[in-house]
Amino acid sequence: MSNSTARAMSDAAAPARAVSQAASAAGVMSDAPPARESVLQRRTSLADLLDLPTFTELVKGFVDLYKVGVKVFDESGTKLADFRVGNGDFCSYVFAFADGRSRCTATVARVKEGPLAAMQGARAPQVEEGAFPGMIAVPCFTGLRYLVMPIQWEGDLLGRIIFGPFTPDDLRELPASLTNIGNGFDVANAEALMSKIRRAPESTVAKVMAHFGQLVETLVAAGHKTHLTSQLHIEATLETNRELEEQNRRLEAMNSRLKELDRLKSSFLATVSHELRTPLTSIMGYSEMLSQGLAGPLNDEQSEYVQTILDKSETLLKLIGSILDISQIEAGKVRLTFEPVDVADVIRSSLSSVAPQAQKKNILLQLRVPERHTRATADREKLRQTVVNLLANAVKFTAERGKVAVALTETAFQPELNAEGYRISVEDTGIGIPAEHQDKIFQSFYQVDSSSTREFGGAGLGLAIVRSFVEGHGGRVWAESEVGEGSRFTAVLPTVPPAPRSVEISPPARSQPDKQRF
Amino acid sequence: MLLYKDSRSSPLLRRSVVSLAGSQVPLQLNQAQRELTVKVVYYGPGLSGKTTNLQMIHDRLRPESRGRLLTVETRDDRTLFFDLLPVFFNTAGGYRVKVKLFTVPGQVIHNATRRVVLQGADAVAFVASSERSATADNNAYWKNLHDDMRENGLDPNEVPVVIQFNKRDLPDTKTDAEIEETRQRGTEPIIGAVAVRCDGVLETFFAVLQGAYRNMEGRSQVSKQLDLDEQTFLSQIFSRIDLGGTHLDGKLTLDSPPTTIRSLKETQ
Question: Which of B26, B30, B68 shows the shortest C-beta gap to A30?
């Protein structure tokens, strides 16, 4: 991990600290939760903006070229670069004297921390032409000299650059402030050591320094851009992340609420249909007693009326039964119990229960079963109801004198299931199902014709139950149809269901109203 | 078309009075460093001219009072991240005031960046294109602005917004009458502009800074804390801007800051 990345990450990880610092520094406290603080609000330091290894290279290159020492400090006085040229021996010699040490320390402090203004021993640089705003010259008591210049960005002081010490070319002899630092000061030695220090006119050093300042400014500008970009990238990513998490939370909450509502609905339906069934059986029982003449003989008209009550009650009972079935499926309460069955027997028994309706409409019922018995493992009652529902559906949508045929195949490999199984198909000569409805008719409460004036009654649950039961057996069911010609429903079921004892049936997909209808 | 007549009836002023009641966002005032940072965000749909506004302000500001115009990541003349232009001055009381102007990236995908940039804004300039075809975009970003403010804990009723109808020179733009209708529908000052010619740019800048000042004053009494009144605040900045050819020219002195901003059409 690079330095700058590490810094970027630690900065991003500590927004709380930045906020509290900002808040206390601002002196304006409020009880409101602290706003998330962005890099755009924070003050940046020179170290944030400069890539230190690159910067160090630049300074070193400069020092090698111009043979003058360069130091760079940030605003808080932290040293970012320090290269000396030639002055080491001279300064060590001077520093060995007590007075030299104290004067040296004072000079260094002035250069490093003193005001960047022509005061406290500093003056404007002596230049032949041009002006260098902010630059000051600080003479050393040794006769050497420093030039100091601010690093500014957006009007803020970010740090300072120090050039020197250099020997100004106007220095003729060592000043008394140096020669009097102590007994034993060796002028000749000092002069020899000083000659190793770069001698140059102050105006030349000032020009070089100004040029260096421009380079630093360019680096700071580039660094500022990189710093803000990387920081803001992180912030934007965190922000996006936060947003996504929020959305997830909302969706989860909504999802569990919907599940709860769905469960409540199913349980309500189950209860209500049960409660409806009880009085309905009484109605049917008493009607039957009436029709059997247990309460005295009925005339023809009375018999007919009572028979109508019985018929309608029967229809209502079936409807309630379907609602109860689907609500139990949706509430996850239905379990299949598998046993060995002869499928042809199941189909024959189913046929007998739809025979009366078929007879009423003069519909021909056909049965084709293979010669060999089709034996399978299944839930007998659920399988029967599956076939009954398919047959009832076919009879309902087939006009008078039409035909409904049910066929069973022998057990054989079924590619749809990738297993051995059998097919039950129910074919009619009814009104057919438009193509766009064919995959939706297995959804609960779905009606091809959902208008209030529709011709065919029913709750739209029969096929949903079929699908749940067939899928509960590990099978598949689908419809093929041609409008006006008829429909064929095919259920393909495995000879042995995947979970042989019993399975929980998952509820069928709900009918979804189309969002955009135009 | 008169945009607003004088500051006493300005919606910005009414706002700041209301906002005295509940101030949440602390002023970016650093007492230790004696520095106040004012944040102004130029918000709006892509290609509406936000960056152009900043470029024009940059070009007309005296170099010693502004930083570089930092444009972070652009491609095909479009801002991918944001622009930043700092403007600064010192008050007589020794405070340093830094006004940071930001633009947000206009493209839809940069929603998170827009929100980050908008954090802690003292005022917003909403740059809309006057083109008829831009109406849907303008509406979408207007809604986006309010969503972003709320997400950032800013009350859209308290952060002053100035609307700039840019690109008045293009064909098939909204008429003055239609813009007047837009103005009637809300309380925000509306300024017509052709940003590429700097028409309306400084007027927008003036209005949004005025809004920012009043917002800060309402929240935290800047005038007392910094001994800086609105006239001084505005003239400190606008005396450093070349106002030639704008409606602010000659109207702005320390004694009499402009209290009237008119649309371009009226004086042309």
Answer: B26
- pLDDT score of A331: 67
A467 close to A479: Cβ distance less than 8 angstroms: no
The per-residue pLDDT for B215 is 93
Section A256-268 average pLDDT? 84
Share of residues in chain A with pLDDT > 70 (%): 86
Q: Does A221 touch chain B (CB under 8 A)?
A: yes
H helices within B121-220, ranges in order?
135-151, 176-184, 201-220
- Angle of CA points B254, B256, B261, to nearest 5°: 120
- CB proximity list for A303: less than 8 A, separation 6 or greater: A291
What is the distance between the alpha carbons of residues A58 and A69, in angstroms, rounded to a whole number?
A: 13
Rounded CA gap, A230 and B131, in Å?
Answer: 35
pLDDT per position as a tens digit, A435-479: 888 877 887 777 776 665 566 666 677 888 898 889 888 999 999
Rg (CA), chain A: 48
Q: What is the pLDDT of residue B77?
A: 63
Query: How far is it, in rounded angstroms, from Cα B171 to Cα B169?
Result: 7
pLDDT of residue A9: 41
Of B26, B73, B98, the CB nearest to A26: B26
Q: Nearest-CA neighbor of A81 among A132, A47, A115?
A: A47
CB contact under 8 A, B98 and A155: yes
Exposure string of A366-378, with b = 16+ CB inside 10 Å and e = fewer, is eeebeeeebebbb
CB B70 within 8 A of CB B54: no
Q: How far is CA A177 from CA A53, A108, A167, A337, in A?
A: 39, 16, 15, 111
Any A CB within 8 A of B107 CB: no
Write b or e for each residue in B153-183: b if 16 or more Cβ atoms lie within 10 A of its Cβ, otherwise e.
Answer: ebeeebbbbbbbbbbbeeeebbebeebeebb
Global confidence as pTM: 0.62
pLDDT of residue A141: 93
Average pLDDT over residues B67-76: 76
Q: Do A40 and B119 touch (CB under 8 A)?
A: yes
Residue B30, phi then psi, degrees to nearest 5: -100, 100
- Local confidence band at A37 (pLDDT 50, 70, 90 cut-offs): low
Most B CBs within 10 A among A40, A218, A232, A244, hence the mutation to make, goes to A40
Q: Read off the amino acid at residue A134.
A: G
Question: ipTM above 0.85?
Answer: no
* φ, ψ at A146 (rounded to 5°): -120, 150
Q: Which pLDDT belongs to residue A6? A: 42
Instruction: Report the run of H or E that residue B7 belongs to, with start and end.
Output: none
Interchain proximity A153–B110, CB inside 8 Å: no
Distance from CA of B251 to the nearest CA of A (A): 28
Mean pLDDT of all residues belonging to chain A: 83
